[in-house]
Amino acid sequence: MKYILNHWPLAILFITWEIFGRIVDNKILVPMPIDTLMTLGSMIFTKQYLTALYTSLSVMLIGWLLVLLIIFFLTSITLFNKNIRYFVDYISSGAQVLPTFSMFPIFLLIFGLTIDTIYAMICWSAAWIGTVSLVSATSASRTRWEKYVINLRISKIKALTLVYFPSVMPEIISVLKNSWGASWRILIAIEMVFGALGGRFGLGALMSEQKVVYNTLEVWAILITLLFIGIIVSQGFNYARSKYSW
Length: 246
Fold this sequence. Notes:
about 250 residues; MetI-like fold; mainly alpha
């Protein structure tokens, strides 16, 4: 019962949707929630939907892992050299404020219409802000624990894995969550705008295709899918963060 009550904002959203739909009174523009959920239930068993879902999630997972690799690598090399730390912080602070799609033409020239362009865009959109956050957290941790590390004569690798990163675990989980959200948003946006880029036909491409043929219910059903995925993943990260709050 407590689990159900924790999701009252979702109930408010659907009630507001129902009221707005009745006010508009145009099922082509704003279909009713129950009709959308029924459409989603029927789409779940179709090959096209399942393939699009698998494609988006698999591309997202690979892109997100690349983002995390970049974030942790850059953070690691900044902990033991103030010049590298200044350089990474300087570049990251500037790069994170650039519009995400400003790099798309450049990546398109380099990689062409391939999946590598999507991965590059995901990394560009999520890695910089995550790096800035984690570098800031680990720098504060280093200031606090460096004396103990030196006194215990712990190697740099052990200090990194046993002291600095564990001491900022809540911040790391926040970085994981935020980088996932940024990666997911840019992936779906690319799929919606450019379709099956790199031969990958994901949820965004399916949504765009259904919009062209005015299958409004299917468009809203895919939107609900994206919403549910976001809520599930976000709740998972929130649960993990609650376990490491100190």
